[in-house]
Amino acid sequence: KVKSSVVPINTQCSGETYFSKHVYVPVVSCGFEKCLLFVNRMCLFFFFLPLFRDLSENQIKGIPRKAFRGIIDVKNLQLDNNQISCIEDGAFRALRDLEILTLNNNNITRIPVTSFNHMPKIRTLRLHSNFLHCDCHLAWLSDWLRQRRTIGQFTFCLAPVNLRGFLVAEVQKKDFVCSGSQSEPLSCSASSITCPSACTCSNNVVDCRGRGLTEIPANLPEDIWEIRLEQNLIKIIPPGAFTQYKKLKRIVLYGNKITEIPQGLFDDLVSLQLLLLNANKINCLRVNTFQGLHNLKLLSLYDNKLQTISKGLFAPLRSIQTLHLAQNPFVCDCHLKWLADYLQDNPIETSGARCSNPRRLANKRISQIKSKKFRCSGMCFIPGFNTDYRSKFTGKCFMDLVCPEKCRCEGTIVDCSNQKLTRLPSHLPEYTTDLRLNDNDISVLEAIGLFKKLPNLRKINLSNNKIKEIREGTFDGASGVQELILTENQLESVHGRMFRGLTGLKTLMLRSNSISCINNDTFAGLSSVRLLSLYDNHISTITPGAFSTLVSLSTINLLANSFNCNCHLAWLGKWLRKKRIVSGNPRCLKPFFLKDIPIQDVDVQDFTCDGNDESSCLLSPPCPSQCTCVDSVVRCSNKGLRMLPKGIPKDVTELDLSNNSISVLANYTFSNMTQLSTLTLHGNDISSVPEGSFNDLVSLSHLALGTNPLHCDCNLRWLSEWVKAGYKEPGIARCSGPDAMVDRLLLTTPTHHFQCKEPVDISVVSKCNPCLSNPCKNNGTCNNDPVEFYQCTCPFGFKGRDCSMPINSCIQNPCQNGGTCHLTETNKDGFSCSCLLGYEGERCEINPDDCEDNDCENNSTCVDGINNYVCLCPPNYTGELCDEVINHCVPELNPCQHESKCLPLDKGTRCECLPGYSGKHCEIDDDDCVGHKCRHGAVCVDAVNGYTCVCPQGFSGLFCETPPPMVLLQTSPCDNYECQNGAQCIVAHHEPVCRCLAGFAGQKCEKLITVNFVGKDSYVELPSAKIRPQANISLQVATDKDNGILLYKGDNDPLALELYQGHVRLIYDTLNSPPTTVYSVETVNDGQFHSVELMMLNQTLNLVVDKGTPKSLGKLQKQSSVSLNTPLYIGGIPTSTGLSSLRQGADKTPNGFHGCIHDVRINNELQDFKDLPQQSLGVLPGCKSCNICKHGICRSLEKTSVICECHPGWTGPLCDQEIGDPCLNHKCLHGKCMVANVAYTCKCMEGYTGMYCDKKNNSSNPCRILKCNHGQCKISEHGEPYCECDPNYSGEHCDRENLCQGEIIREVVRKQQGYTSCATASKVPRLECRGGCGSGQCCVPLRSKRRKYFFQCVDGSTFTEELERHVECGCSKCL
Predict the structure, then answer these.
(1) Which of 559, 621, 749, 1104 has the most crowded Cβ, counting Cβ within 10 A?
(2) DSSP state of 622
(3) Positive or negative, the Cα torsion across 710, 712, 718, 720?
(4) Helix or strand or coil: residue 7?
(5) First and final C-alpha spacing in the chain
(6) Which residue numbers delimit the EGF-like domain (predicted)?
(7) pLDDT at 31 exceeding the cut of 70
(8) How would you label 68-105 residue by residue, b for 16+ Cβ within 10 Å and e otherwise?
């Protein structure tokens, strides 16, 4: 290669020289005029060479006028593959014998007119692969080449655009044109390219200061020492911009707009001593940015946009003396800890660099902050990496690592809350896992592709905004998001298109919006959602199947909505009963008779639309998304439409499509629009209208076709006739072609003028056959389509309507199990996967069996994991590889009970029992009362290895063998007092009293007032004579069943009182009209006794449960059937009677009632079941064995057992143990203490609320204006409101989550060593983890250490033991 050199003017040269391609050339002595060629810092020597010169593949940039003077014998000159951009006029004048000249692959744009005039013998000229500008100054070359057809083949124009690719010889002279500014011929000077025109060059310094430059100048002198480029407008520095300037000592670039330093920019600049990059917009530096700058002494990065710096950035700077880092928005988290250590060890930073974030470190000098203050929270760890996500990319430089303006980034949490944002941020860091956008002013979520770039995002909080609309595609790419919070916004409707892309969503919070309807497409595509909250909306109707796509749903909150329980909601009651989903029991608001009744408790026949057919889900008429519709008027003007929008209602009367880009109308475009009267197509791109396009528009009265490029040939003759026949076009539409028809009116031009005489322009024909204009890019195949106009079949790697969009094969995350996708052209699928450790396969889908080569011992079982395996040990073995024998007699594993001795065996243990115990593990306390010797009815009490006799009154002795002394018999008041029905007589105040068995009452327990229904078809019949037309029936019920008949009366107009889903339901059926029904709000299926009262007065029926608000059936059409002479059944109905007279729905109530009925009164007369006729089987006296509860009531369990619910002040299994009054020392501040079992509740006075009635409840409460996000509002002594925060939260509004951190606690550790107590000689420090974590994680210990501690015992002994103590806290899986 020809190398650059500097040759003095009078230099003589001799010897031999080698040029490229190893051409051997003898060199003779020559003067400067014969051998010097000055080309951009090169002195190239041309010597007297016979015949041949090959100077290809050098760095020649220009050819001076006298370059070849004196060289007359050269016949072949090759200058290919250089950088020649300037050929001076007359450069080849001396080469009169030249036959071959090649200038291929250079930068030639213009060639002077006389360049080739003095080469009469030229027979080959090659100029291909240059940048020839074919304007008026190159017209001579076209003539010259045409006259010599074989000489200059393959010479092409590159500019202007209209001539690009044309052979210069074939371009007509008239096409070589110049604009006004280019009319003067441009000359060039080969010597001028040594220094840029905008700069000055002297003494090895290039000075380009303040010249408005937007890029680094090229072609600078190679031997420069300093370049000054400050105060310009440079944004981008290309890679290698300084590579060839090896002698540079100083680079000054401050005061520009540089955002990024390309990789390798300063490589090999070993002489560089000063580098000023201050006052730019640099936001990231690669870790190897300053690699090789071993002699750099001063580096200024002052006043840039750096938030973090990669560890090791300054390591190559061995000679650095001064460093400027101030005025950068540094985030002082764990990633910047190294910088503080570096600056403390190397006090070279003189500008005072300070932290901007987090707040606790804001404005503090980095070099003065202790290392432990640099912390990260919310870290996102990637499997396979020892550091977090951001550290993984320290060798790269992305905008994805920069925190958005106005937001706070710590760890992987990006907090943009409470910043008055009105739209989503334009970019977010790629490492984001938790995005907080709550408490802003966002009203519309736009589809800007934001979430496609956030592969690690798991949670989005958009609560407390003003969101009214979520655009389709907003969440595209957010497949990893698991929690979306949209609480407290203004959404009125939701549909599945809003949530497209959220395929992995598990929690969706839509609480406190204005949603009125849930359709069956609302949650389409959300198959992973487990928790859905629709609390506090305006929902009155949910269409059937609305939740069918939520196949993973386990919890749904539908409370605080306005449900109208009519026929449209009947399916929801069944669905709630059928699905085992936590729902919170949503309740009806309408109709009035079902108000406050849980939806799942309402019988299907009571969901009726009689007079109540309202539905918030009635669909409004369809309207295209690009249009607005008012009644039957559809307006789609100025929407950039290229074809008719889909979904135009068929009953449209006015359609405005003006000022769009519609170019094609088909004969089916307006089909079936029979009511359309006004059609506006003004201002489109319509050239032709197919015949019959308006045939279906039978009501059309006005057609606007103005400002369209109508091509009025024979194909449009029918339209002319059609317009003239009906005068529906007002005479505005004009023709744009053919030439003879330009500007003629469609309405007034005679029909015979519409003729086809000349070929139609392709731009017109392509509107009817779009494929003629080749709309498919990148070799796509075009097919005409009747609906879409045309469709493109795209080749591999492209997509879109016209195949113009390259496919990113990685966008669908094809790599499984956490693999990383990389785009590649070598793979047939367009991508390849980098798998995490433990996975393999093309898509990382294979988890290889790690058990194929395992080290599990002692016949243990190997279980494959991910890049590891686990050994499942057989009995008696433990350890990671099951190589340790278990000693089952150690205290933690000892199975022997009752202080028996444990003996270890080869397989297991053996227990030696103490006397009185037996069993394999000495777990059985032997019953020594078997064969006891206690006498006179004494009770034997078992003891350890013996027994004790508890003697009756008066007896004594070891076995109670000694009788009492003789005494005179005494008489008792009970001796002649007969208690009935098995009752016990007791003496109270010297009077006999009968203690009745369960279910009996009366002075001598002669009345049966409680019965227990246990049979399938059991019932009790009361004679009709006891019932009057105006009656009152009351009873008490105890059951834990949901359904059953309590009372039944009448056959013609039956009346029933029954249990339905735990509620009491009263039904009156006149047979001539629908049954009249009323439900109790209260439920009675808790096993306790509840009072039920039925009042009949003046043709009204009222139901009262537990003394609550009466529920009335209203005025009946006739007197209730209770006045008829028919029996009254309690607890069931005879099977012979059946239930045919009472109309039943799909959920038929079973006949039988299981439970207790007590204290039945008719007109206040207590009913005695003992005097009734023979009852059915399965009716037992009493309520099982409820008489055992001394101070309480019984609760029945199944058929044979009960439990006691004690009255206040009593406890114990039989309610026979007195306890203190729960209301003693109560805390009710402004209210009355009410006993509730063994506790109490506060009944507040008017104007107070709260658990202890300690909060005022009035409109002037100061807490009304204070919002406590995670806490409760309290009133101070001065009447001021303040927030008392929940655990893990702080701040004025309890809105700042306390970060997970450890608190050191020092305390003495105590241990029991045998029979003595021991304690550490000094306090042992331990770390207690406190604070909150997101994403369902807990604040737990992450790392611990073991250390030996000295114990002292109370008996004087000592020992040393290793204790484990935690040393680091963090967020991890909850234990």
Answers:
(1) 1104
(2) P
(3) positive
(4) coil
(5) 72
(6) 769-804, 806-845, 847-883, 885-923, 925-961, 970-1006, 1187-1216, 1219-1254, 1259-1295
(7) no
(8) bbebeebbebbbbbbbbbbbbebbbbbbeebebbbbbb
Report the phi/psi class of residue 264: left, alpha or beta, with left for phi > 0 and alpha for psi in -120 to 50: left
pLDDT at residue number 1358: 83
Closest C-alpha to 388, from 300, 331, 290, 456: 456
Q: Tokens for 509?
A: 């919070």
In the DSSP assignment, the letter for residue 846 is B
User: Is residue 15 predicted with pLDDT exceeding 60?
Assistant: no
Half-sphere exposure of 917 (CA within 13 A, CB side): 15
Q: What is the dihedral of CA 579, 583, 584, 590, to 10 degrees?
A: -90
pLDDT at 32 exceeding the cut of 50: no
409: left (phi over 0), alpha (psi -120 to 50) or beta: beta
Report pLDDT for 382.
37
Residue 538, SS3?
A: coil
Question: Tokens 């240059």 label which residue?
Answer: 130
pLDDT of residue 1238: 63
Distance CA 821, CA 812 (A): 10
Burial of 851 (0-12, 13-18, 19+ CB in 10 A): middle
- Two tokens, residue 35: 């051998």
Q: List the beta strands (DSSP E) in 1144-1230.
A: 1155-1162, 1165-1166, 1179-1181, 1192-1197, 1201-1206, 1210-1211, 1217-1218
Amino acid at 620: S
Q: Which pair of structure tokens corresponds to residue 193?
A: 């390219």
| Cβ proximity of 506 and 482 under 8 Å | yes
Residue 35: φ, ψ to 5°: -125, -5
Residue 573 and residue 544 in contact, taking contact as beta carbons nearer than 8 Å: no
> pLDDT of 1051-1081, one tens digit each?
666 788 899 888 999 888 766 666 788 888 8
HSE toward the beta carbon, residue 805, CA cutoff 13 A: 8
User: Residue 632 in contact with residue 653, Cβ under 8 Å?
Assistant: yes
Rounded (to 5) percent helix, strand, coil in the chain: 10, 30, 60
**How many alpha carbons lie under 13 Å from residue 912 in its C-beta half-sphere?**
5
Dihedral over Cα of 386, 388, 394, 397: its sign: positive
- Strand, helix or coil for residue 1064: strand
**Which residues, in sequence order, are CB contacts of 638 under 8 Å at separation 6+?**
658, 659, 660
Pair 694, 700: CB distance under 8 Å:
yes
How far apart, in Å, are the Cα atoms of 288 and each of 247, 257, 430, 1154?
21, 22, 22, 82
Q: Which residues pair with 634 in a beta bridge?
A: 629, 655
DSSP string, 360-394: GGTT-BGGGS-GGG----S--BPTT-SSBHHHHTT
Average pLDDT value over all residues in the chain: 80
pLDDT for position 213: 92
Dist. CA 618–CA 608, nearest whole Å: 17
Rounded to 5°, angle at Cα 293 from 287 and 298: 95
Task: Kindly provide the b/e burial profile for residues 862-891, where b requires at least 16 CB atoms within 10 angstroms of the residue's own CB.
Answer: bebeeeebbbebeebbeeebbeeeeebbee
Identify the sign of the CA torsion 849, 850, 855, 861.
Answer: negative
Q: Are 1049 and 583 in contact (CB under 8 A)?
A: no
Question: Whose CA is closest to 1187, among 1004, 999, 1001, 992?
Answer: 999
Within a 13 Å sphere around the CA of 359, how many CA atoms are in the beta-carbon half? 4
Q: Are 1306 and 1327 in contact (CB under 8 A)?
A: no
Say how far apart CA 1305 and CA 1327 lie, in whole Å: 6
User: What is the spatial distance between Cα 889 and Cα 692, in angstroms, rounded to a whole number?
Assistant: 99
**Is-cis flag, bond preceding 973, omega within 30?**
no
Q: For residue 516, what pLDDT band results from cuts at 50, 70 and 90?
A: confident
Q: Kindly give, in sequence order, each residue whose CB lies less than 8 Å from that of residue 329, ignoring residues fewer than 6 positions away.
A: 305, 306, 307, 356, 357
